[in-house]
Amino acid sequence: MALIVQKYGGTSVGSIERIQHVAARVKQSRDQGHHLVVVVSAMSGETDRLVGLAKALQAVPSPRELDVLLSTGEQVTIALLSMALEASGCPARSYTGAQVHMLTDSAHNKARIRDIDAARVRADLDAGRVVVVAGFQGVDEQGNITTLGRGGSDTSAVAMAAALKADECQIYTDVDGVYTTDPRIEPQARKLERITFEEMLEMASLGSKVLQIRAVEFAGKYRVPLRVLSSFEEGAGTLITFEDDTVEDAQIAGIAFARDEAKLTILGVPDQPGIAHRILGPVSEANIEVDMIVQNVAADQRTTDFTFTVHRNDYDRALAILHDTCAGLNAREVLGDPAIVKISLVGVGMRSHAGIASRMFESLATEGINIRMISTSEIKISVVVDEKYLELGVRSLHRAFGLDQAGIQPPV
After folding, report:
1. pLDDT tens-digit profile of 175-234?
2. What is the pTM (predicted TM-score) of this model?
3. Cα 144 from chain centroid?
4. What are the residues facing 366 on neighbouring strands?
5. Which candidate among 23, 270, 273, 281 keeps its CA 20 to 30 Å from the CA of 238?
6. Measured between alpha carbons, how far is 268 from 186 in angstroms, rounded to an integer?
7. Which residues pair with 168 in a beta bridge?
8. Euclidean distance between CA atoms 27 and 274, whole angstroms
9. Position 243 confidence tier, pLDDT thresholds 50, 70, 90
């Protein structure tokens, strides 16, 4: 017998039939003797519908009232799923985030969880009930309803698992696990049996949409074993767990990519202390996140070229800011390119294998792909290339590192 937290996303509960399917899956787990807590999202499309209603009344909706509105989506789902479970002969009880006292800070629309009072949930589990909890929401110290931001139900589920010291947190979604890369780009992409928290954190931050990055951070911090499974197919999914001796067998776990990148360069900047702050300070003040940064000293040793990337949605604003900065610094020119992408290799095995970067660069060069920028960490290598080379780059790297073959990667 195990205590398991299961999370079902909006697609998984998108209709009455799918809710009944989820209820059958939950009942099957309970019939095997497990204690079950089920965290659910709003039905697919419901959150967008509610946001549309709010914006029809207020161009910029009140953050507090928007949270009150959006939280109703999950409230509908928990009630319907509990009814479906009861109808199948499985005792169940639903709770909103406030009812389980999922305490958050007061940052409406993007709150962070501080604490959970799991006493009521434990009492229901001891009484033999399945507990159904609304994801994505909580309550602050003043009693205001809060929401955790898009994808917040993943974080809700991991937080519940941590509070209950669950044996496993299972994230059910429309994919059957974590793949070596996006199967829509590379048909030979392979489902991973396991991946480390470090690798999953990098994959999530670099563009993989399987899990919300905050959920992975939470799971790693509180040592919650996490598993990604399909709501629609049987299978063991992918276990996200802690590093062990087997990771040295695999140099690369997967390839992540981000399509929505843009690159900006300011040329001929005076090479002096504080120049990076003078360039990026105004960008930061505009709440624009900067990703990769490269600085090159010019041949005259007195000026430098400064390049950085931002999300493509922020490109126009960042470009305008940089033009103002250019005039203030007496720099030579500002260049921009909104048609770039980032491709990243991720793997804890990089720590013990030399030559990963060399093979990556060779593979891209063989395909005639020019690298615009490079960034590295202990378990990641990222490159920026022209947008038109995204699919070719991913496929060539997937072949070069043997990711289509389980446990077999060519030696460096």
Report:
1. 888 888 888 888 898 888 888 888 888 887 776 667 778 888 888 888 898 999 888 888
2. 0.78
3. 26
4. none
5. 23
6. 41
7. 4
8. 61
9. low
